[in-house]
Amino acid sequence: MSDDGLPDVDAILGEVGFDPETSVLTRRQAEVLVYRERGIAQADIAEKLGTSRANVSSVEASARENVAKARETVAFAEALDAPVRVTVESGTDLYDVPNRVYSACDDAGVKVTRTAPELMKLVGDAAGDAVQGRQVRTDITVAVTGSGQVTVRRS
Length: 155
Fold this sequence. Notes:
Blueprint: H1 9-16, H2 27-37, H3 42-49, H4 53-81, E1 84-88, H5 97-108, H6 116-127, E2 131-132, E3 135-136, E4 140-144, E5 150-154
Antiparallel strand pairs: 1-4, 2-3, 4-5
Helix pairs in contact: 1-2, 2-4, 3-4
């Protein structure tokens, strides 16, 4: 903590290896996220940074959008490179997904590192509103890398 009771942003960014030259986030966006992820109110951040709460809100929204885009880009690249890609069509029961993925992985000689319940949870969580309850509402692609890592994207 710094003298003002707020987290030491420089130390935290250094610990996590933040590099503004290679990051999709600006330094200010990273700084705001550090504070927000540690529960600091936008008004307190605005006071610390000498700006308005509305500006902090805007910077935070842009940062979260950039993080979401970066995650989607990584998921796309991993899916593109994955030896196993299973398209799960709208209307599919989530309980049917693990067997479809396991079957495709067996055919490709890839070992999945997740149990069926873990795989269903991962797919449900990662697909967002494309899965509601047990029902796949929008086509999704489940990809499995050679090392068994699973990614999920909307098709």
